[in-house]
Amino acid sequence: MTRPVGGEFAGLSNYIDLLQSPAYQLGLRNTVVFMGLSVPLNMLLSLGAAMLIKDMGKFKPIFVLIFLIPLVIPSGAMVFFWRMMFSRNGFINNIFDMVGLDGINWLNSEYAMLTLLIIFVWKNLGFNLVLFLSGLSNIPKEYYEAAKVDGANALYTLRKITFPCLLPITVIVLLMSVINSFKVFREVYLLMGSHPHESVYMLQHFMNNNFHSLNYPRLTSAATLLSIAMVVITWGLLWLERKASHE
Amino acid sequence: MKKFFVTVGIAAMAFAFTACGGGNATNSATVPIFAADDEPLSGNLTVSTFDTVMLRPFLESAAELFTEMHPDVTITVDSFSAPPEIQTIENEDGTTMQVMRTSEGPQERRDYVNQISTDLMGGRGPDILAMDMLPFYRYARMGQLVDLRPFMEHDPNFDINDYRANIFDLLTTDTGLFKFPINIDFQYITFDSTLFTPAQQNALMAGGAFTIQELLELGSPAFHAANEEHNMFSMADFVMFRHLFHLYQNHFINFETRTANFTDGVFVDMLNMIQNMDDQGYLQDGTFGNVRIGGMEVVEMDRFLYKFNPSFLLFQEFNRDDPDRLGFFMGQGVTDDDMVAGLLGNSLGDVPFALGERGGGTAFGINSNSQNQALAWEFIKFLSSDALIDLAGGVMGIPLHIGAFEESAWRNASNHMFTPRRLIEDSGAPIEYLELNATQLARKQAYIETVDGFINSFTTFRITDALIEEMIFSEIGEFFNGEISAEDLARNLQSRITLVLNE
């Protein structure tokens, strides 16, 4: 990897160099692992919360509001709160200490991924919940009444009515969750810095740090590959959404 | 139309999938230099430094002298750090003192590096970069700095024998020499002669470099013999860590192969040794560099077996009996009986030095985007020459130009540290005023021999990376606070620094 400005034609060497970079491989692996964990977890929890809230009558708006609060709090302000919670002498470790457990290095050990998942779910649950609530409210009540008359139990109703009818909105939620999972970098960066524990080093860290270390060829190669991956994922999900809508 | 968009799309993809690389920044066959002494110099130069307090005034004065000699040249000096504030504070006894406060912090330094980096990557940037803060090895790796070897080899007016050639050799890597050193700073060790037996003193004055283990072996009996009434070192645990880390840095981090080596036991042994030194009472709580005004008298009367001193104090070791000498108080206790031991080395046989990038000393590099590389080289040569030793900014480090060093030794010996010889000559002062007497000559000679010995002792150059240092020094507190074991810290640093090196 040499001079990017005023240099010579490099062909595909920047991409080969990128794919052989251990830091890129680590960032890619962590990003995929985080996406694989955070997206299903967030979708399951928000769907569960939506199904619990939807029949709460007059309390429903209050619960929706509570879940939406994290969306409107700036990340920068929340970082202080999370640091207070998860630092070595933070609130959680103090509780551990009170019950006789050893404290955990939440921000600089393998537990950092768990910390990140908690923050991600806290931040994005409300948004998905609203989407699922709108999807649930669009399912005609007659379907459930007919299923009840036919003697269908709750699990059967869920499998045969709720899930199929929610499929279009589920694809949208999936798409938004994937996009939001990429945006978690902001919190990680503010909380753990430019070089966090290796378990939470994301692709965005790699690109951000390469910008600062002047490695523009590597940065632009990584950005190009990421853009292509995002286009393919989005195109695939939109195709799935179209297919689900037609069915 | 659909075919058209597909074709354009494929072309765009193909374009995105390929990119630019580059060749060497300087081709030795076409090195741009002004060949003849009488060839008139012309052109515009920009010089950038972070430091507004010391380096900027030095560069401005140098630019003024240079443009006087070459009227067709213009030089613009830029600096980034905020100017210092002068504040008057009142002591407990009602007296007042003036304190200079600088507001520079890590963020300001990062902003400067970002600004210069962005300029360089955009094909712009200043012609000459002072390497006081910039990550020179990253720039060199990316081809943003000119290899200076071809200039040194092809310039008929440059002779490496006028300089400390071993420092240039140690700075040169397989890919070139990317910063030109002007002066150097280092730490040397002194010992309080009243606290050691004559045999121990002889061992300490045998010359060369000492490992911390050797100092402890010689110092422990003296420390315990005095019932621990005196102090071993004048620094706290984290300062000792900083010293030892720098000594072993080239063992822990290899910037060329991009590998880290914190887990082979050396780092853990080092941390445990510092912890043990602290347990034994060999270390202090924040004295050196962290002196409280109220505590000054106490520290001033204390005796320390060993002191680590900055090189600009070195001449003080030879003129203690001179009533006119300039004295510097460093908060390291009684210095009247101090004697020079040597440099600090590591147990692997290395005696490293740093240069610029906050490692002390001054060095300059030439931007490979510069259209005025020949002029930039001329100005850098001028900056390193004995013509500039008159400028106050040039006297703090030890000049690497031998003539400039001789001149600085004369200034120290004659107590004219801050008065340019030219001004003294112009004032019509008697010649005796400029000539050294026998005592002064002896002091000067002893100083020169000591510096020669020190500079010839260096075996390796230590790269300073602000990001890595920040990472290590922010984590080390957890070890000294007992929050993390030495082994866990070593593992953490191994993984994080490997990551940084491989990005």
What does this structure look like?
Chain A has helices at 13-20, 22-53, 60-72, 75-86, 91-98, 112-137, 141-149, 154-182, 185-192, 203-212, 216-246, and one strand at residues 9-11. By secondary structure, chain A is mainly alpha-helical. Chain A has a single domain (13-141, 167-246), classed as MetI-like (MetI-like fold). Chain B is of the alpha/beta class. Chain B has 18 helices and 17 strands. Chain B has a 6-stranded mixed beta sheet. Chain B has a 4-stranded mixed beta sheet with strand order 9-13-8-12. The chains are: A mainly alpha (247), B alpha/beta (503). Strand 1 (9-11) of chain A pairs antiparallel with strand 1 (19-20) of chain B.
Keywords:
heterodimer; A: 247 residues; mainly alpha; MetI-like fold; 11 helices; B: 503 residues; alpha/beta; 6-stranded mixed beta sheet; 18 helices; globular
Question: Could you give a short account of the major beta sheet of chain A?
Answer: none
The percent range for helix content of chain A is over 70%
Helix amount of chain B:
40-55%
Please tell me the overall pLDDT of chain B: 83
- Reported CATH architecture of chain A: Orthogonal Bundle
Rg from Cα of chain B: 25 Å
> Beta-sheet strand percentage of chain A?
under 5%
Q: Please outline the major beta sheet of chain B.
A: 6 strands, mixed
Offer a quick outline of the entry:
The complex is a heterodimer of chains A (247) and B (503). Chain A is mainly α and 247 residues long.
Blueprint of the fold:
The complex is a heterodimer of chains A (247) and B (503).
Chain A: E1 9-11, H1 13-20, H2 22-53, H3 60-72, H4 75-86, H5 91-98, H6 112-137, H7 141-149, H8 154-182, H9 185-192, H10 203-212, H11 216-246
Chain B: H1 2-17, E1 19-20, E2 43-49, H2 55-69, E3 73-79, E4 85-90, E5 96-101, H3 106-121, E6 128-130, H4 136-141, H5 149-154, H6 165-171, E7 180-184, E8 187-192, H7 198-204, E9 209-210, H8 212-225, H9 237-252, E10 253-254, E11 259-260, H10 266-279, H11 296-301, E12 306-310, E13 338-344, E14 352-353, E15 362-366, H12 373-384, E16 398-399, H13 402-413, H14 421-426, H15 431-434, H16 438-457, E17 460-461, H17 466-480, H18 486-502
Helix pairs in contact in B: 9-10, 10-18, 13-16, 17-18
